[in-house]
TrEMBL record:
GO MF annotation terms: structural constituent of ribosome
Keywords per UniProt: Ribonucleoprotein, Ribosomal protein
Domain of life: Eukaryota
Gene Ontology BP, a term: translation
Gene Ontology annotations for the cellular component aspect, listed alphabetically: cytosolic small ribosomal subunit
Record has Ubl conjugation as a keyword: no
Species this protein is from: Paramecium tetraurelia
KW NADP (keyword) present: no
Family statement drawn from the similarity comment of this UniProt entry: Belongs to the eukaryotic ribosomal protein eS24 family.
Name the UniProt record assigns to this protein: 40S ribosomal protein S24
HAMAP family: Ribosomal_eS24
SUPFAM superfamilies: Ribosomal proteins S24e, L23 and L15e
Amino acid sequence: MHFVYVEEQIICFSFHKIKKKIQFILNQNKVHMTFIVKTRKVLLKQSLEIRRQLSVELLHPNKPTPSQESVVKELASKYKADERNVVVYGLRTTFGGNRTTGFALIYDTQQYLLKFEPKFRLRRRGIIPKRDGSRKGWKEVKSKLKKTRGAEKTKIYMSRKTDKREVIRAQKETYLKGFVGK
């Protein structure tokens, strides 16, 4: 099933008639079209009922690649989900433009999103704080750990690890409190 978004009107088409119908609508209404969303390979984790996984194809003739935010809004409206539970990633535009493919995950609840999404995607969304310090600093600490032995080594390593874990856990809890409050 294909959906064409033309000035907030959703029009459904079959595969073989889509190009003719789009040209007809554009010529008839003189409307500026943004992009078309096609979803494929929709997998629903039925045993767990956690999320829907889908492959997304965007058609945007003579237009730049749509932003992730606009794709998230369209998928949330199409699948009747909250925009905060939709994750879009891996958007790749084909050479010459006009078509972009990617992946999307639609979680049932915010708790599942926090539990199953990788940390780097949570950092991109601003849920977990970004890493402080630099890669060089971590390498220096790592080399110091190689030189030390025994209890000193475990003390340095565990103090560094627990701080990160506690900060991330606290940040997730505050995010969930804000989500429930709204």
